[in-house]
Amino acid sequence: MKLESARRVVSGAARPPQAPPFRRRYKRPFDLAVLGLLFLALWPLWLILVAAIVAAVRLQDGGPALYRQRRLGLGGQAFDMLKFRTMPVGAERRTGPVWAGRRDRRATPVGRVLRRLHLDELPQAVNVARGEMSLVGPRPERPAIAARIERRYPGFAARLSVPPGIAGLAQARGRFPAPPREKLRYDRVYIGAMGPWLDLKLLAACVWRTLRGRPARAAARQSVRPRSARRKAPPGPGPPPPQPARPR
What pTM was computed for the model? Predict the structure, then answer.
């Protein structure tokens, strides 16, 4: 199936193709079951953690604790993704939508801690409960940035064929921040193999990676292909054989 351009999706001129329903049928029950179990098992911790984060963010500069950002969801449908605010109010007033780096200077001291531990993503549990996101899937992009990515790397619409997620294969195996081409290739691998067991493994891998506090591997050493698909380069030609000495 040929994928439409994400530029047309962002402009509303076309809708991207979606993955077959049978490939996505498990998503909603899986998300609600895992989310419900986590809440029932850890609700006292969640309440204390959320209250502490809200107080810390508000005490930082007096601004709101929550931040809403427009993102693209399933089928190119825009929604408001929730996050704990990690930057000063109006941080993009001059620059417009830009990608946040790993050591973004705009982040507040509290925001840097939240980002390192990925605690700024906690409010997205509300997006999952609403059905706007999934626990596992491609990370949703902002419409303006999505259009820029599509101009340089055609095929972005493939990521819109499944619900966006909080965690994903790119977050579990890739580097941060991952370049668009790498994210797209990881997400295509996930879309081709998505299932409940894979989602559980990716959730565990992302949690373990966060708890270890290890950043993603260096860009120069990280391949975007699955390990099974990697092949060693054939050895180059060796030195020429020695020539026999001429008799004098």
Answer: 0.74
